[in-house]
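Input record, target 12 of the design panel.
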């Protein structure tokens, strides 16, 4: 029998208490050298990030496995795979976002990649997190929209986003991840986040283009349960500390620390 999803249950519990979470996305291809990686991991550990995410739309380096093993060697903070396809699976991770790209109409990303990866995931010890993944237009063409061959939901089509998220929930997805794509010019708007959050009862993850502390706060305040930051921290690891301070303060104000 498959083991219980302990990490996901813990996340669900803190979300049900209204607690805000912060995930750091590490792109194996953007790691300059091992020292740089260790520095970011150490800062993330000091900040007690809620989880690490590792993955990419297209990975050219051989660094996916080493990235995960370096994190695992230093901390118990969970590592969650964020795979662009079934090749980017490494069984050292604790969990995997089993993404279905529900904003798109590309069958390979709704079921094809899942069929290819199902046997290995079923045999593994990893927690598999069924995730409705929705791309929202962030003003520029991102790797993920090009690589997925899908059109993101227009940024002001709140009803389409809401209905898509509800459909994901009704189909049994356990998380909704709305992403403007890595390096998006504009993060997802407050109104879009709030409309989707109101419509669903599963945790809402928001990412793409969150590159300063104001944007992180605005995403949380509009309804994000988890925010994901990648690019901006690669450029300035100190941002980890600022965002963590904002999270701590917000959780204190919400009385859920
Ligand atoms: C079920 C399995 C095994 C895989 C899921 C496959 C699906 C549905 C993927 C969705 C589409 C996709 C390509 C997602 C990738 C998301 C991701 C890891 C983004 C990280 O950012 P990058 O797109 O790599 O950005 P950069 O251009 O900044 O590197
Ligand atoms: O790299 P950034 O823009 O922070 O985006 C993070 C993540 O949501 C991308 O899929
Ligand atoms: Mg990438």
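The sequence produced for target 12 reads:
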């Amino acid at each position: 029998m498959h083991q219980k999803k302990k990490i996901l249950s813990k996340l669900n519990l803190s979300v049900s208490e209204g607690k805000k979470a912060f995930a750091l996305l590490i792109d194996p291809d953007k790691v300059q050298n091992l020292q740089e990686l260790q520095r970011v991991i150490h800062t993330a550990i000091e900040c007690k990030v809620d989880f690490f995410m590792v993955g990419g739309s297209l990975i050219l380096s051989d660094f996916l496995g080493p990235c995960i093993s370096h994190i695992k060697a230093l901390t118990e903070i969970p590592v969650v795979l964020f795979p662009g396809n079934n090749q980017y699976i490494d069984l050292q991770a604790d969990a995997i976002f089993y993404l279905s790209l529900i904003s798109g109409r590309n069958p390979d990303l709704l079921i094809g990649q899942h069929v290819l990866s199902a046997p290995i995931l079923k045999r593994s010890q990893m927690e598999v997190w069924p995730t409705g993944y929705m791309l929202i237009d962030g003003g520029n063409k991102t790797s993920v929209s090009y690589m997925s061959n899908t059109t993101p939901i227009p940024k002001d089509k709140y009803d389409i986003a809401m209905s898509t998220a509800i459909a994901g929930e009704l189909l049994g997805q356990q998380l909704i991840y709305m992403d403007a794509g890595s390096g998006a010019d504009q993060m997802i708007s407050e109104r879009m986040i709030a409309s989707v959050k109101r419509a669903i009862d599963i945790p809402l993850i928001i990412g793409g283009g969150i590159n300063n502390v104001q944007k992180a706060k605005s995403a949380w305040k509009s309804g994000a349960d988890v925010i994901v930051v990648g690019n901006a921290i690669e450029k300035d690891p100190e941002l980890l500390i600022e965002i963590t301070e904002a999270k701590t303060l917000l959780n204190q104000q919400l009385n859920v620390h």
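The mean pLDDT is 97.
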